[in-house]
Recover the amino acids of this structure.
């Protein structure tokens, strides 16, 4: 190939202008790689056009520059600087996520405890209520009893007998309210001392001539009884009432050495 | 760095390589556009568009089909011609139909205060002053106006083979002026 003639043909100027066909372009490209003179000539032609175009650009321009290009193609100037706080940011998100989870857990635990406490409080209150209800019920019962007792004692058929203290216990006293119509005797034993363990008071109906004692019954649960009023049956023709201290379960006949109170019926 | 290597990296979307290529060619591409639109602000706007476009179409460039500058120049030329053909440009530029290089020599003494006028007249004048009007015409047609050889031969009323040789001799004179 005659390189000189090829250059002189003017094909390289058209190559730089971009006016050749695809085949011609490829041919020039291959020749340029093969022949350094051709390559050099192409660069010289390009240089001339570069100078011409550069001279055609006015000095006094805005010169937006490559920063404008960056923003146009959507690339920020220093992506690495942006990335660092980005990583930190994701860490913070994770941290705050964990913190929120822990707080939620603690909150749930607190609510659970609070709920348990409230439920046990409710149980205690319920139990207290039951106790109160029981007490009210008992108080009502006791009030009813007292009312009945008062009515019984006020009955016009009741004879009141005072029982005075005897040698064993001069301080002791008692009262017997005898309803002859109903054969019932109310013994008010408030003036008697509490019986020792294993002992019990026994009430006797006495006939004086000859002295004949008949057991009317025992004052059971003396300590526990609040008003110390005991109701006993008495169908006998009683002339006097006596109370003795006897072994638990009572005796066949009174132990006269342990006679605490005694009172005659005045008709 | 070697130009071929720079272009390869640019085609792989290396922004730093792109920035270097921009630095190498922005004045030339903007200048080529200014030759057509004859307005430096408009030229710069189109010029930035062109560089944005070559970034997005980087993979379509193939070295076996031409020089990188030639490829970019073609895209710039098309963008500038599109602008000149648009209605808004025609409305604005009714009275400026003169060809650039030929016009420069005629206008230079009278209206170089205008925004439209090329400012760096001394350098340009020095390059083109002793070129004949025939030369300026053919260079402007082939390099900046996108005329094919055939279109140029019809426009200038010369045989198609003459277009090629005349262009060769005109570019040679340009190169001589540069080396002075």
């Amino acid at each position: 190939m005659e390189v000189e003639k090829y250059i002189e043909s003017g094909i390289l100027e058209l190559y730089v202008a971009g006016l050749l066909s695809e085949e011609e372009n490829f041919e020039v490209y291959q020749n340029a790689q093969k022949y350094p003179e051709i390559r050099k000539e192409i660069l010289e032609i390009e240089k001339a056009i570069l100078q011409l175009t550069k001279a055609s650009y006015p000095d006094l321009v805005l010169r937006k520059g490559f920063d404008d290009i960056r923003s146009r193609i959507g690339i920020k100037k220093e992506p690495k600087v942006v990335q660092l706080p980005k990583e930190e940011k994701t860490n913070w998100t994770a941290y705050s996520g964990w913190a929120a989870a822990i707080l939620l857990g603690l909150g749930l635990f607190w609510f659970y405890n609070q709920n348990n406490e409230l439920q046990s409080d409710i149980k205690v209150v319920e139990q207290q209520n039951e106790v109160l209800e029981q007490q009210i019920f008992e108080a009502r019962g006791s009030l009813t009893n007292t009312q009945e007792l008062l009515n019984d004692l006020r009955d016009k058929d009741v004879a009141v007998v005072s029982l005075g203290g005897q040698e064993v216990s001069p301080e002791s006293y008692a009262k017997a309210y005898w309803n002859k119509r109903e054969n019932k005797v109310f013994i008010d034993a408030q003036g008697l001392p509490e019986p020792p363990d294993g002992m019990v008071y026994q009430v006797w109906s006495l006939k004086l001539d000859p002295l004949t004692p008949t057991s009317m019954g025992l004052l059971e649960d003396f300590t526990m009884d609040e008003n110390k009023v005991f109701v006993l049956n008495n169908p006998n023709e009683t002339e006097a009432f006596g109370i003795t201290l006897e072994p638990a379960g009572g005796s066949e006949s009174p132990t006269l050495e342990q006679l605490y109170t005694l009172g005659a019926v005045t008709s | 760095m070697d130009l071929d290597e720079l272009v390869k990296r640019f085609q792989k979307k290396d922004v730093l390589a792109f920035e270097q290529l921009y630095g190498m060619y922005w004045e030339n591409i903007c200048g080529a556009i200014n030759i057509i639109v004859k307005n430096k602000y408009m030229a710069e706007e189109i010029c930035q568009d062109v560089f944005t476009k070559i970034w997005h179409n980087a993979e379509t460039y193939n070295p076996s089909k031409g020089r990188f500058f030639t490829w970019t120049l073609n895209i710039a030329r098309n963008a500038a011609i599109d602008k000149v053909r648009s209605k808004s440009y025609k409305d604005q530029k009714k009275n400026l139909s003169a060809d650039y290089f030929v016009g420069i020599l005629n206008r230079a003494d009278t209206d170089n205060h205008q925004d439209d006028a090329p400012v760096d007249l001394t350098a340009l004048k020095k390059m083109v002053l002793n070129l004949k009007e025939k030369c300026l015409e053919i260079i402007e047609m082939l390099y900046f106006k996108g005329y094919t050889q055939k279109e140029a031969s019809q426009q200038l009323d010369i045989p198609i083979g003459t277009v090629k040789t005349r262009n060769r001799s005109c570019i040679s004179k340009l190169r001589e002026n540069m080396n002075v």
Observations:
- Residues 80-87 of chain A have pLDDT under 50 and may be disordered.
